[in-house]
Design a protein that fits this description.
single chain; alpha/beta; 2,3-Dihydroxybiphenyl 1,2-Dioxygenase, domain 1; 4-stranded mixed sheet; 2 helices
Length: 118
Amino acid sequence: MLMNLRFDCVFYSVSDMDRAVLFYADLLGLQLVSRDAVARFDLDGVLLELVPANGALPAAGQGNARLCLRVADMAQARAELLARGVATSEPQDKENGRLCSLRDPDGNEICLWEYSRT
């Protein structure tokens, strides 16, 4: 018998919920769906949750998970983030597009991905 797995959410542990909610809502523009002990955002029908770390967070880059957001125009997206005070890496050309990254206030990696125009 196979397990009947269903997608629930993607989550990041954060050390300061108020700071993290401001980052994801105000700086990235994600829609806050609900907030109690956990903050929930809708991202194209995917539930992104911010959960309290309740202790030390692992060092940035110690895991292999990352949130990847598709953008139509990398230059425009980076310009908007930079105008809001959010630093990003320089875009890197990849086989099927361009990729750059940024970090939330707790060091969680977020990538921007622009597919190649074909």
